[in-house]
Fold:
Amino acid sequence: MGAWDDLDERLRPAVEAHTRKYERVRPALDRVTAAMRDSIEAIFDGTDLTPLFVTARTKTVESFRDKTSRTLPSPDAGAPPVLVFPDPLRNLTDLVGVRIITTLPHEVDLAANLLKRQRNEFDCRGDREKDIGSIESGTYGYSSRHLIMRTIHNDVVRSFQQAVDPETKAAGSYLFEVQVRTVLAHAWSEIEHDLRFKASNPKAWSPYFDRQFTGTAAMLETVESAFAELHERYETVTGFWDEDGEGSTPLTPNRIRDVWQTLLPHVDRKSDDNWGWAAELLAAHGLKTTLQLVSLLQADTITTVRKALDHRYSPGPDRLLDDMLLWHYGERHIDLTAEPKETDTAPRRDSLQRRRRQMEIYRVQHPDVA
Structure:
């Protein structure tokens, strides 16, 4: 049951009059809705942000009547309740609603900020994170960025305002709502809204449904976080290959560590990793930039080296880097980084020679390997 069903009989004539008027002017408001959608879609043309999609809707007549029927207790004893929206065509800001659906969480803020900068077309009159309290309280639920925008001297809005009241000078300013949220939040809220608010029998509910919705919201938030981390890592790795940007960054020990842990976070990071020694190994071959390091650390080559050496224990980054350089440079790597040949005791040279023989045997057995 909605607010209309419970409305005080004394208030029904006013609500019915507002509803008839809304039904009459709604076709003109539909044109406002379409214009707002088109304008907002055009904002993203030529930008780095492309929303998954932009949709818009005009509030239905039934929904308008139900929202217009909301009341508050009268301050006067014995008097009927008062309408929350006494002039709904002016008071309601969600008669026109636009949704911007993004892929990743960080794009929500980017889209909202881009919209707020369109000061020639719109004026932002409100901006809030709906249900932000659920985050602060440690619970899960629907999350969306809600903006109240006002049009500025819009001709389509003027036509609608003239339809509402031909005697009033139309200024072309109109308040409407824009929701910005991710596709996962959108899916969750749509399903939750259909079951909770559009059910054929509102009494057919169970607390377990709330528990399940909370659980799915938590899972979706985890998935969103994973996608966000994946996107951030992708952007970072892409930057490594920019020879005029991050790719030109010199290879200090800390830089090698950061690049390695971004590309190969699955490789064991032992407490005694010597990134200074790693820098020395790379410098011995003239490898001094980030781009040169990422070119060396190709995943398929790492897999091949692992197979060739059949490590009994998972090697740490410093040992695996040593093996990668040995695979690429062979005898030259040994001569540049091991003890001189005439040295009586040469444990490193012996170890590198043994590993090199294993690699050569593997190459003979797998001629297709580079």
Notes: Strands lie at 53-58, 71-72, 82-83, 96-102, 122-130, 144-151, 175-182. The mean pLDDT is 90. The chain has 15 helices and seven strands. The longest strand covers residues 122-130.
